[in-house]
Design brief:
Helices cover 56% and strands 9% of the residues. The chain is α/β, with parallel strands linked by helices and 291 residues long. Helix 3 packs across helix 5, helix 3 (44-58) runs antiparallel to helix 6 (88-101) and helix 6 (88-101) crosses helix 8. It starts with 5 loop residues before the first helix and ends with a helix.
Length: 291
């Protein structure tokens, strides 16, 4: 059974750590376990309960009333709420539930309903990205089990692949050539896939080399493809390079191409750190660059 720290439970449940401590003091439903050094931790069952309670509490129910319900009753009420709600925060909670329970059918239903109602881009920006952000800390610390991570990323990747395949590029005089890849050792490819979708929808010419590409392959590919821009995301440290050194190496290998880089490892950089490089802080920044 997994163990979650109070901060990890905060990220997954949406309930603030100080609120968890208050509930622990006032109510009997929440009794976190303790390590030998007296540090709180929570198990899967407690996490599931807190996601349910946090969802109902954010939708106006008083905690004093919520805790009077049994576990099955809480689950039923939350399931009914998810069927009715269009609020992004509630739907993110629902996706967290699906991840914990490996509930593929409900995961698919939530995404499909949102795509039909709001479109693919709003679903990705308002639902999938916040969901990925909520779980991102646990990906990096290894607190989400590999099976849970693979479950949710596979389902999201499936949606992205279908959306990409539906985009028929009609290049014109304004079209540019984009080469997409992730550095060696970088395997979380959902953002690079979404980038491919956005570029194709905007009639840009795209080649996506995928995850964990050795940097030496760039110059080989570029000789044939001749990109106007290189796009990459860096979320984990790169072996043998600082981020600035790595982007500088790309600039050296492909001096005629602009570089667009994002991801958590680039947050401290500024554009002037690397020649001919744009650091994107958000997807709105990226859209401004390509439009």
């Amino acid at each position: 059974m997994a163990q979650y720290s109070i901060r990890e439970v905060e990220n997954l449940s949406g309930v603030k750590a100080h609120t968890l401590r208050i509930w622990e003091q006032r109510y009997t439903f929440l009794k976190p376990k303790r390590t030998k050094t007296n540090i709180r931790y929570y198990d899967d069952e407690q996490l599931h309960l807190l996601v349910n309670i946090g969802t109902l509490n954010r939708n106006g129910e008083k905690i004093s009333k919520i805790v009077q319900s049994g576990t099955d009753e809480l689950q039923r009420r939350v399931s009914d709420l998810y069927k009715l709600t269009n609020e992004a925060g509630d739907l993110v909670d629902a996706l967290i539930h699906c991840m914990i329970d490996f509930d593929e059918q409900k995961f698919e239903q939530i995404l499909d309903r949102s795509i039909i109602r709001l479109g693919f881009e709003i679903t990705f920006s308002d639902l999938i990205i916040p969901f990925m952000t909520r779980t991102g800390v646990l990906w990096l610390t290894g607190k989400i089990r590999i099976s849970q991570e693979h479950f949710m990323t596979t389902l999201i990747r499936r949606k992205l692949t279908v959306a990409i395949d539906a985009q028929a590029i009609r290049s014109n005089e304004k079209s540019r050539r984009y080469l997409l890849f992730l550095p060696e050792g970088e395997f979380h490819d959902l953002m690079i896939l979404y980038t491919e979708y956005i570029l194709r929808k905007n009639n840009q010419v795209v080649t996506n080399l995928g995850a964990s590409l050795p940097i030496g392959e760039l110059s080989f590919m570029a000789d044939s493809f001749k990109p106007d821009f290189i796009v990459t995301f860096i979320t984990v440290p790169i072996r043998g390079y600082t981020v600035t050194e790595y982007l500088g190496e790309i600039a050296t290998l492909l001096p005629g191409a602009g570089i667009i880089a994002g991801g958590s490892q680039t947050e401290s950089l500024r554009d002037e750190n690397v020649p001919n490089c744009n650091i994107v802080r958000s997807y709105s920044d990226f859209i401004k660059l390509i439009m």
